[in-house]
Design brief:
The complex is a heterodimer of chains A (264) and B (279). Chain A has 264 residues and is mostly helical. Chain A is built from eleven helices and no strands. In chain B, helix 3 packs across helix 11, helix 4 packs parallel to helix 7 and helix 6 crosses helix 7. Chain B is flat. Classes of the chains: A mainly alpha (264), B mainly alpha (279). Chains A and B meet through helix 2, helix 5, helix 6, helix 7 and helix 9 of A and helix 1, helix 2, helix 5, helix 6 and helix 7 of B.
């Protein structure tokens, strides 16, 4: 509901019609690229302002042979570590908050205080506390992604149908069993929604923290190339990280589809 | 939300003493946590063996906060940051809602923007920040454009989904009663899609706040973000903490105001009657 799922229409009959559909769907992008190339090649826009698309592709190939993969790997490793920790901790905190009243009373005010705070405000604090290394960025992304997961897990676990819980109890399930077998599976779809929000946030925080404090990672590379005046390379890197974000979102859709395959 | 209390296993027919104790815990608990954290913070900074550079005492931070507040510096910075964030939010909202509705109602617009939105929504738009600096310079224009660009995809996507989800029967009945296109838009489609559109705006506003701080940190100039990063570069940790405090307050005010606007605009809608938990 929050992120409308826009998946290519999947046709099961034959591959070629599916190919054609995907091609037709994404044809506007091709159009944009053609206009981009024509406008820059024709000299309508200064090359300092917008490099030619073909030059961007060549720059991409050059950086790919140098150190693009290293920087991308560093960024993705950071983002993934932080996001995984945030999902595990956040989901547990959220479910426990919904399930045990004392936990809710004690943890909720802290979350209410920190929820509206823009998490990028913590970048300078991360520099002071943890320094410029990996740990500061991982912590920052972790904190930023934690709260959306906690809130969605909390709301999800509260919204679990009580009839399910009562029937499980009446059949003699222990508290732990009810939590494990009823509450968590029933809350899973909404928790996964929170994970999607956290995924998008993790990319924002990853790139912006690397733009400000880093000596490696894709955000650093973009800033470095931009300051050095290599705009072709900068465009190439920006397009690369945007496509990685897109691929990560598609991967999320695939994985959550698999996890929720038991659902209607 | 009202039913959730019953599922809590600890609430089994409490005696009256326990009930009073429980209610006391419920009302005092939340505040005591906050007060406890502050007391612990102050105590560990005063008597604990913690470097004041890493954790300045709460009292130091507060005195710094009020000094900045009354010198007017903080208000100016906060005003600048909020002006950028809210202008960008306004631009993104106007553009996003218009495009979203157009995408749902007209085929060519949908054909052109569908792939752009589906790729642009999950992509980290902040990566284009150096390009925006190249195109629009280092001043307000670049910052506002960057923030508006980051937030608009979310608004387009939710508005599109909301408009598509408007019940066909509503549109058909309005048409059969002779509504013009304009009436259809203003009196049927927009009100029916409003709750979801507002949800999209409520997601976009925190994005605006996050991105505006990052643009200020990267591009410099004035504003809460750059003031904080400067404090951090000068190893002025009370400045960093008071900056976080001011940003937290600004974020809280902005987000709460949007919630109030939502409740106002949707006063006819059934969701307002329900007790809606934001956290």
């Amino acid at each position: 509901m929050i992120f409308p799922v826009i998946v290519p229409v999947s046709l099961s009959d034959c591959g070629s019609t599916q190919m054609a559909l995907v091609l037709r769907r994404y044809s506007p992008l091709l159009l944009i690229v053609i206009v981009w190339e024509a406008v820059t090649r024709g000299g309508l826009i200064d090359e300092l302002f917008l490099p030619m698309f073909s030059d961007v592709v060549i720059a991409f190939w050059e950086i790919l042979q140098e150190d693009l993969l290293y920087h991308v790997g560093r960024s993705v490793a950071r983002g993934f570590t932080a996001l995984a920790c945030a999902i595990v901790f956040g989901a547990s905190i959220g479910v426990l908050m919904a399930w045990y009243k004392p936990v809710r009373i004690l943890v909720k005010p802290v979350i209410q205080c920190f929820y509206p705070m823009p998490k990028s405000a913590l970048i300078p604090l991360a520099i002071i506390w943890i320094g410029l290394g990996d740990a500061s960025k991982i912590t920052l992304i972790f904190i930023g992604c934690l709260l959306p997961v906690v809130v969605s897990a909390f709301n999800a676990a509260r919204g679990v149908d009580e009839v399910l819980i009562w029937s499980a109890r009446s059949m003699g399930a222990t508290e732990g069993e009810v939590l494990r077998e009823i509450v968590v599976p029933a809350a899973l779809p909404e928790i996964l929604h929170g994970v999607r929000v956290a995924l998008a946030l993790s990319f924002i925080l990853m790139v912006s923290s690397e733009l400000i404090i880093a000596n490696d990672g894709i955000g650093f590379l973009i800033g470095f190339l931009g300051e050095g005046g290599d705009f072709k390379g900068m465009f190439a890197c920006a397009i690369t990280i945007a496509s990685i974000g897109f691929c990560a979102d598609r991967l999320y859709l695939y994985v959550s589809g698999r996890i929720l395959s038991w659902q209607e | 939300m009202a039913g959730a209390q019953e599922t809590v296993p600890n609430d089994r027919k409490p005696s009256s003493m326990r009930a009073i104790g429980g209610r006391l815990f419920e009302t005092v608990g939340p505040y005591s946590v906050i007060v406890g954290i502050i007391v612990l913070w102050e105590a560990s900074a005063q008597w604990g063996d913690i470097d004041p550079f890493l954790l300045p005492a709460f009292s130091t931070v507060m005195s710094r906060f009020f000094a900045d507040l009354f010198s007017g510096k903080m208000l100016m910075n906060a005003g600048l940051t909020l002006w950028r964030a809210l202008t960008a939010f306004g631009i993104a909202g106007l553009l996003g809602v218009t495009l979203g509705i157009l995408m749902a109602r007209t085929v060519p617009v949908r054909w052109f923007f569908d792939p752009i939105v589906s790729i642009g929504l999950p992509a980290p738009k902040i990566a284009l920040l150096p390009i925006f600096m190249l195109w629009f310079g280092l001043f307000d224009a670049a910052k506002i454009m960057m923030v508006a660009f980051s937030a608009s995809f979310q608004i387009i996507a939710t508005t599109w989904a909301a408009t598509r989800a408007v019940e066909k029967e509503l549109i058909w009945s309005a048409r059969s009663l002779g509504a013009t296109d304009r009436q259809l838009l203003w009196q049927v489609i927009l009100p029916a899609a409003l709750p979801q559109i507002l949800t999209g705006l409520q997601i976009a506003l925190p994005i605006c706040m996050i991105v505006v701080l990052v643009t200020e940190m990267v591009m410099g100039g004035e504003g809460l973000g750059s003031a904080m990063l400067r404090a951090s570069r000068f190893a002025d940790s009370p400045g960093v903490f008071s900056g976080i405090l001011s940003i937290g307050i600004a974020g809280f005010l902005v987000i709460k105001s949007l919630e109030i606007v939502r409740r106002r605009l949707l006063s006819w809608h059934q969701e307002v009657a329900q007790d809606r938990a934001t956290v």
